[in-house]
Design goal:
By secondary structure, the chain is mainly beta. Helices cover 0% and strands 23% of the residues. Strand 4 and strand 5 form a beta hairpin. The protein starts with a strand and ends in a 31-residue tail after the last strand. Bound molecules: zinc ion.
Length: 77
């Protein structure tokens, strides 16, 4: 008997009827499970929320655009 790795519920499947890479869903906890191995069947939980911890170093290089064109006052004399 295969069990859900998430909630440990029994999952009724025939290991002759599943294929590696097949996606199942647990009837108990609704988790998505991928068959990573058959004979015996091994399931992993596919977490749908991607919790990739990315440390983003956002360097806000504030480029102060000194677009102030200093026009030289023409001293017309
Ligand atoms: Zn489950």
């Amino acid at each position: 008997m295969t069990r859900c790795p998430e909630c440990d519920a029994e999952i009724d499947l025939d290991e002759d009827e599943v294929e590696e890479g097949e996606i199942l869903s647990c009837a108990e906890c609704d988790a998505e499970l991928e068959v990573t191995q058959t004979h015996p069947v091994h399931l992993i939980v596919i977490s749908d929320d991607e919790d990739e911890e990315e440390e983003e170093d956002e360097e806000d290089s504030e480029e102060e655009s000194s677009a102030e064109e200093e026009e030289e006052p023409e001293e017309a004399e």
